[in-house]
Amino acid sequence: MSKDVAVLGVGMHPWGKWGQSFVGYGVKAAQDALKDAGVEWKDIQLLAGGDTIRNGYPGFVAGATFAQALGWSGAKVSSSYGACATGAQAISVARANILAGLCDVALVIGADAAPRGFFAPTGGRRPDDPDWLRFHVQGITNPTYFGLYARRRMDVYGATQEDFAAVKVKNAKHGLHNPNARYRKAVTLEDVMGSVLVADPLRLLDICATSDGAAALVLSSMDFARKHGTDPVKISAVSTVTPVYPNDIIEMPNLATDSKAGVELPEIGFKESIAHRAYEEAGLGPEDMSLAEVYDLSTALELDWYEQIGLCAAGDAEKLLRDGETSLGGRVPVNPSGGLACFGEAVPAQAIAQVCELTWQLRGQAEGRQVEGAKAGVTVNQGLFGHGSSVICTV
Amino acid sequence: MTEKTHVPAVEGLFTMDQRAPRLLGTRCRGCGTYFFPAEKTFCRNPVCDRTDLEDVPLSRAGKVWSYTSANYKPPSPFVAKEPFEPFAIAAVELEKEGLTILGQVADGVGVDALATGMPMELVLRELYQDDEHVYFTWNWQPAGSGSDA
Fold it and tell me: Which residue on chain B is closest to A243 by alpha carbon?
């Protein structure tokens, strides 16, 4: 049985700080996706919402919140959460329903209105919650983990702060003409290296901002798409894997790794397993990818992803970057959208936005940032508490 | 004026032995894997179904896996000193337990003084105070460098 589902339509609300409700952003993205698909809201059989945890109860039941805002239509609903990987959870729900024959056409929406500055845990004293505990007893924020990984690249692979800055310069250039990007401004190595240190060796411009934004997809069965008379971009794989015990890499929001005493390490690490599972499902490999959208929470993390999604061997990411292979015009452009460097993070929308970008690229509609002749693309993303997220799209 | 009572910021994470503090974990009596913070209910190794976990103090010494700094004040529920002073953070590998554990680096030791593979040891440091208590947490410190060594 084919595991393909069709991406009939995509839509986004531009990323920024707009000071409005996440609901409005989501509705705008959904309306754009429906229009792009040529499908009416009343014909949607399932709405899969990605939850936001910083916008009260409506955010925890995002699917129903969006359904009400679009106008109750009787559609089936789901709401899911997987931290930064929330969007992949919602896509996975919609895809599974379509592949199981439980619905023909589904709408996926993720939207957020984010606070400024560091993400912090929600209120109350909760010593059993690792997210509360790391802030309270050690003052460990998300950039702490980004800094640890970056320093590790420097000490193990000889990466430099200039390499990290070069990732930002590349992504800023990619995003210059993306109408949905929040930051559309060229950045120089000097700009990055001259910005304030936040989590050594990372500076302010190495670390992504938090943003408002929304993204939506209309997904359908391949049969529905054919009857609709379109030859759509397809989702060929969705990976939502968890780690295999023991995970010996320190991960957000934990204070400690799993123990590797007396237990065999898995064949591949968690971060490597995320895209690996998607490649297996699609029957494709990294060599088949025309482009990748990776979760550049920091510049150095983008380099980690090159290796973890198989674009190069461990330790070779800096060379891949310096050789221009991951820039537009290179062998496999990474983050042609501009990535989080140009968007900032709108948590539940992000993994969906990655699929929007793949779709525009594979349709040849990515004006000003088009990867010529793109045939297949991979997204990768990770949500804290052990959420893998990777989607492969093909034409 | 009465002395303030010294207490851990969160119970059960470490001993309050100021000279030679230990983090408090658990070890599965079946497969031998360790947990920090302590897992008391069931072993999380998927091939082990044991529920008898023993409390164990963890090694005080380990080696730096990586390190970074906090140059901006972390948000609540962290209680930052005023004025805020940047601090270093180290991820330290404990060889026997096979665990890597995060902690602030003590006494203003900055990232320039740290290196991957450097031996570190556990110390206790004041986190914050209220009217009655002084709250402590664990820090890492370069081995043999301080008065607590």
Answer: B46
